[in-house]
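Late entry, evening session. Most of the bench is empty. Finally got around to the prediction I had been postponing all week. Sequence below, unchanged from the version circulated by S.P.
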Amino acid sequence: MTPDNRQIVISGGGPSGLAAALLFADLGWEDIVLVERRQSPGDFEKNKAFNYQIDPRGQKLLKRLEINRMLDEYGVANRGFTLTSIGPDGEASLTSPPIIDPDRETSYWTTRRNFLEMMYRAVAERNDGRIRLLYDHSFQGITLDADEIPRVTISDGNGAKQIFQPDLLLACDGLVSQARQSLAQWPGMAPDYFEMIQYPSASTGLTYKVLNLPACFPVQGKIDAADDHRMTYSIVSRHTNPGDAMALFAFPVTDPGHPRSVNIIRAADHNLWKIDNADDLIAYLQDAFPQLDISEIVSRAEAEDFVKIEAGRFPAPQHARHVHAKIGQGHNVMHCLLIGDAAHAFPPDLGLGVNSALEDLFVLDDILASAGGNLEEVCHTYEKQRLPNNASLTRLVQTVAPYQYNHKPWHFRKWLLMFMIQLGLNRIMPWLIDKPTFQLTQNHDLDFVEIERRQKKSRSTLMLLGAALTAALLFGLVALF
């Protein structure tokens, strides 16, 4: 491809930011500047030690960038979902909940840390000098100087500033996007132009922290150890009251020497969040999980970090009212696009955060290819395509599976029952009843507008079937008398 001498500034060095740098390098752009506030590529925020499942939706971009095979090294491949549950007495049971679409292609479990390492390695191996990775830098703002040329200002950890004059600014810097906030404050911008439209959800406000455990660890009871680092384990607490009940979800890791990131997700008033010192935490966990020797598998340093780090909270499902802005006039123009969490953010109910961000870039690449380098057309088309998709995605996260964390047990059981009923009806009458929406979201060939349309159709059909069944029962009762 003929090199393009235009400049792009990418705010944010997470998965979507690094992927964007790779994408625009492949497209031939000559000056690619990535701005990331972390001090170095190896600096990982402990409160962001998430687990990712890179599914076929996210893999579309990785395949196009020809780095998908790296997932075999940095992740654990899976087609379905197999879980080993370990009860308080140490008894283990292997289950395969039918929540995964059997037609789904291979996905990969990985940690955020591993995925960032993979993406950084891909950038480093391909960087021929056109990509500038500015770690320990932060986005400061956008200005329009006397020459009426839009400029972006960034600063390093010492406050030293650099000024760029990009043709394109990509906001890949998350829900609390500095780039989006700067754009929203631009003179003449409508106050609600970049407003985040929020939807209520049953999982909004759930509190989470991450506890690191060894990849393999001993178990006291009927099995000796959780000794398969490629297996998902659910370690169930002995408590059943809402204030103490919980489970430790230990997701697979590819390296047995790499710690597992164990998610703990509970309501904000859970007693775990009231603990403020390492000794009390270890004692509390030991009481809750008699099947584990907590003092052996949770170091004091890990316990101290856990209580010190501020817990995260799931946001409301939300999307930006717009994802494109144009700054300047005539030839002195900078286009700005929102990518990933800067454009749409939500709880991890469907595992679509990182995957939908990568899909944003995949769609952007398609548009760039068809628009022949006309940025004005590219950006308008991107907004036209992504806005309805983002709105549907956000509403799907709001409604499809917010009770899966079992923070409201009755609602969780009701959700599971309805899921199984629809799954059974789909197997009997696939021409009439669609797959459960949770499974439809795993189909990377469907956009979210289409998935939402099919969700609404299934709801209407199920309601009609329910009404018909109720009427038939009532008619039968009347006939008896």
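Two things to note before I forget:
The mean pLDDT is 92.
The chain has 13 helices and 24 strands.
Will write this up properly tomorrow.
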